[in-house]
């Protein structure tokens, strides 16, 4: 997506600079006027491209959140188990995706399965991705480790949080 935005911004810049050159040849106004106008248009185009990239990221996060929420809808008779889940430090995998160690402790007297949703947030607190994690059966009183993984490459500082955890 970033590559596509960069290509669009580059194409817009080329068109605007070409336009500035043509109008500079046929105008009675100083040559700096078209250049200034072109610079203004490029700045506006870059702002639009950044806005489009931000919108695409928000769309990707919304899509991931919808998919993760549908994972919870498949759980029948689940009980809130956020207290059973702890998250470790964020790392970046060799494929560039964000990984978070997840520790699940079954405090129940019976073996249980878990479905955990982990939000990935940027420094402003905006959710930029969501991961749904299905943890297979955990023995009564036992603890197991799993890994929540982002659905795409995330940049900058990322903070994970347990959005939801169901025990069933």
UniProtKB/TrEMBL annotation:
Residues 1-20 form the signal peptide. It comes from the Bacteria. Keywords: Signal. This is Lipoprotein. It comes from Streptomyces fildesensis.
